[in-house]
Amino acid sequence: MYKLIAIDMDGTLLNDAKQISPGNFDAIQQASKNGVKVVLASGRPLVGFKRYLEELNLVSQDNYAVAFNGALVQTSEGNEIISRTTLTLEDYKYLYNLSKKLKVNIHALTETSVISPKDTKYTRHEAEINHIPNDIIAVDQVDGNTIIVKVMFVDEPEIIEEIMDKIPEEVRIKYTVVRSAPFYLEFLHKSVNKGAGVAALAEKLNIKQEEVICIGDAGNDIHMIKYAGLGVAMGNAFPEVKKVANFITKTNEQDGVAYIINKFILHSDKEFAV
Predict the structure, then answer these.
(1) Is 221 a catalytic residue?
(2) 144, 174, 189: which is the final residue of a domain?
(3) What is the pLDDT of residue 162?
(4) What is the 3 state secondary structure string of the chain?
(5) Residues 170-193: tens digit of each pLDDT
(6) Residue 273: pLDDT band with limits 50, 70, 90
(7) Selected catalytic residue, list 8, 91, 155, 217
(8) Domain range enclosing 181
């Protein structure tokens, strides 16, 4: 019996219009009523997806969220922190120097804003989808007390693709490096990933690994898909994500999340759009 389901946001729970479909909504409500912990696990800060938690009736002291790709795990109300692991300003400076060598744009996320030495469409996109400020400030001018949660290389997909093989091995050893979107390459504390975040939450709730389902579509979902008792890739997932999954569901435009909930939690044969 599955007791916890961790669901990625963009490309997984949300359709291409960034909405929760009626099918996904209904399935999540039924799973919650059946006592299953439904947890949203996102690369976004909590403020960037809290409105979706509210829409799903998942904001309370008994509901949880995995934010910043696992760097922050907390109650969805935000009052209790289960785990919190961040980077430092020195990490940002180190990766900024690498970005200059690779000729790729960069920004960083604090707990409340995006900071970047240059205004780009991808930095604006990050700020807009998360409803947080976009602060353009030179790296050497960032306040020394600033807490850096994660750093991101942000650029055209073909540029990100080109630099993937140029990331030095020492950087991959020093950080968790994940591609969360075609135009985003993220750097987190070495101990941080969605899998570790979901594992920390499962341990707190006394839920066994084999009782966990994780669903995602991108590189930053691989750790949690590998961790889960049932690791699920979306039909629209990156090929490398499908490769590590136990099961491939329908796409985010076909209520792939609802399909999994109905099949493995509610044991319903309800049909979905194809």
Answers:
(1) no
(2) 189
(3) 96
(4) CCCEEEECHHHHHECCCCCECHHHHHHHHHHHHCCCEEEEECCCCHHHHHHHHHHCCCCCCCCEEEEHHHCEEEECCCCCEEEECCCCHHHHHHHHHHHHHHCCCEEEECCCCEEECCCCHHHHHHHHHHCCCEEECCHHHCCCCCCCCEEEEECCHHHHHHHHCCCCHHHHHHEEEEEEECCEEEEEECCCCHHHHHHHHHHHCCCCHHHEEEEECCHHHHHHHHHCCEEEECCCCCHHHHHHCCEECCCCCCCHHHHHHHHHHCCCCCCCCC
(5) 999 999 999 999 999 999 999 999
(6) very low
(7) 8
(8) 89-189
